[in-house]
Automatic annotation (TrEMBL):
InterPro entries: Ald_DH/histidinol_DH, Ald_DH_C, Ald_DH_N, Aldehyde_DH_dom, MeMal-semiAld_DH. Keywords: NAD, Oxidoreductase. This is methylmalonate-semialdehyde dehydrogenase (CoA acylating). GO terms for biological process: L-valine catabolic process; thymine catabolic process. GO terms for molecular function: methylmalonate-semialdehyde dehydrogenase (acylating, NAD) activity. The lineage of its organism: Bacteria, Pseudomonadati, Pseudomonadota, Gammaproteobacteria, Pseudomonadales. Residues 22-486 form the Aldehyde dehydrogenase domain. Belongs to the aldehyde dehydrogenase family.
Length: 506
């Protein structure tokens, strides 16, 4: 919860980054950053004042005047250095992330690594930002395009991937020649700030990257500020819809990756052991706090007979603090998240689903104050139930049944979200039919969490995405640049022209 001004010397405070300087906020509003396994207060994060947020944007606007003219090779070399620094500090970054967010240490390293891949991609900006040219489109006339930066961009990032998602945003924007204002999640900004420190160490000039902290006021300032040209958001559907509508109404570009309810379809011919293990990892990993998790499994035909084995495997998963060796499921991020998840489990029981494995109130030795919920499995779930309609964002798996593949596809396509989906099968024909008929942005075939590598763009669809262009990959270059088309003719001084009142270039 938000607290009054920090008491001198009590706990560390998270700084703002404005104009290349890490500065102490003068706000009177602070929020505790709490270790979800112990409830220890790790630090306090400020809700920046309006003046501080305006100063961050002004710094970015001023820096853009020179950064946009920086040679593309110089920009690329910064990100070559940055990826090296991230690699060298991987263990430290993972430890910070685990302390404030709760992930296991291996999962925290994975969080950082998937962001690192985008940083490496940003270092290739020289080939990514190339325009096009057509020679002699008319007599002596050439036409070409320039992919130029658009100005000050901003990013609003969620709690569940506090390393990866900021690294989806500011490296690509800055590599394209823009400047950036980042607003990390106020729940776990510490690893983000360490990544920002490393970015400054890598050579990002003063003012090119700025960081503000806060809640609703910070989000609205980003949406409203006339000097911000583009907004990238990852988070809940409710907030993402607000950001998209408010930002676009103010004339900004916006890309909003939002909520999900991903499904896995399991065909009877799927490799049983491999499939069950994949389902467990995708459903319960990161305590289910992934927008690309698999909270719904549709068992087709005889595959329904696998349910008892799935439940037995789920019982073997180890629940503990993320720092403990061998942990499979760490705590969820906050007490309020735990309360919400437990409430939805109760609602599932009340609405008639069969609670085959109840993960509420597990006993975790040495961490009796932790926000723990164990793997939970419901069967007999229908599309009308709250546990199906709402994104639980916890280690809760809903099992449904379908008579055949087309019936399963109908279930998936009827859901309003379109973030990710997967099929498990040995049949190439079934896989091809699935990929053609499914109306979801990211499709896995025997791949449980089909998040694309940075060569491609994150392509969620329907209710999971607002905006035409996704993060990273080729699409994000279009998002962070403005195409300028130049048509030119150079005449020889000996040529004699004549007045031409038509639009022809012949």
């Amino acid at each position: 919860m938000t607290t009054q001004a920090n008491t001198q010397g009590a706990v560390p405070t998270v700084k703002l980054l404005i104009g290349g300087e890490f500065v102490e906020s003068k706000t009177t509003q602070w929020r505790d950053i709490v270790n979800p396994a112990t409830q220890e207060v790790l630090a306090r994060v400020p809700f920046a004042t309006a003046e501080e947020m305006d100063a961050a944007v002004a710094s970015a606007k001023q820096a853009f005047k020179t950064w946009k003219k920086t040679p593309i090779g110089a920009r690329a070399r910064i990100f070559l250095k940055y990826q090296q620094l991230i690699r060298e500090n991987m263990k430290e970054l993972a430890a910070i992330l685990t302390a404030e967010q709760g992930k296991t240490l291996p999962d925290a390293e994975g969080d950082v690594f998937r962001g690192l891949e985008v940083v490496e991609h940003a270092a290739n900006i020289g080939t990514l930002q190339m325009g096009e040219m057509a020679n002699n489109v008319a007599n002596g006339v050439d036409t070409y395009t320039l992919m130029q930066p658009i100005g000050v961009c901003a990013g609003i990032t969620p709690f569940n991937f506090p390393a990866m998602i900021p690294l989806w945003m500011f490296p690509m924007a800055i590599a394209c020649g823009n400047t950036f204002v980042l607003k990390p999640s106020e729940q776990d900004p510490m690893v983000t700030m360490r990544l920002v420190e490393l970015a400054i160490e890598a050579g990002i000039p003063a003012g090119v990257l700025n960081v503000i902290h806060g809640g609703v006021d910070a989000v609205n300032l980003i949406c409203d500020h006339p000097d911000i040209k583009a907004v990238s958001f990852v988070g809940s559907t409710k907030v993402g819809t607000h950001v998209y509508n408010r930002a676009t109404q103010n004339g900004k570009r916006a890309q909003c990756m939002m909520g999900a309810k991903n499904h896995a379809i399991v065909m009877p011919d799927a490799p049983r052991e491999q499939t069950l293990n994949n389902l467990l990892g995708a459903s319960f990993g990161a305590a289910g706090q992934r927008c690309m998790a698999l909270p719904v499994v549709i068992m087709v035909g005889e595959a329904r007979e696998w349910l008892p084995e799935l439940i037995e495997k789920a019982k073997t998963l180890k629940i503990n603090a993320g720092v403990e060796s061998g942990t499979d499921i760490g705590p969820v991020v906050s007490c309020s998240a735990l309360e919400r998840i437990n409430g939805l489990i109760g609602k599932g029981v009340a609405e008639g689903a069969s609670l085959d494995l109840d993960g509420r109130n597990p006993q975790v030795a040495g961490y009796n104050k932790g926000n723990f919920v164990g793997p939970t499995v419901f069967s007999g779930v229908t599309a009308e139930m709250t546990i199906y309609k709402e994104e639980i964002f916890g280690p809760v798996l809903c099992v449904m049944e379908a008579k055949d593949l087309d019936a399963a596809i109908d279930i998936v396509n009827a859901n309003p979200n379109g973030n990710g989906t997967a099929i498990f099968t040995r049949s190439g024909a079934a896989a091809r039919h699935f990929q053609e008929e499914i109306d979801v942005g990211q499709v896995g075939i025997n791949v449980p969490i089909p998040v694309p590598v940075p060569l491609f763009s994150f392509s969620g669809s329907r209710g999971s995405k607002l905006g035409d262009l996704g993060p990273y990959g080729k699409q994000v270059i279009l998002f962070y640049t403005q195409a300028k088309t130049i048509t030119q003719r150079w005449l020889d001084e000996s040529e004699v022209g004549h007045v031409n009142t038509t639009i022809s270039l012949k």
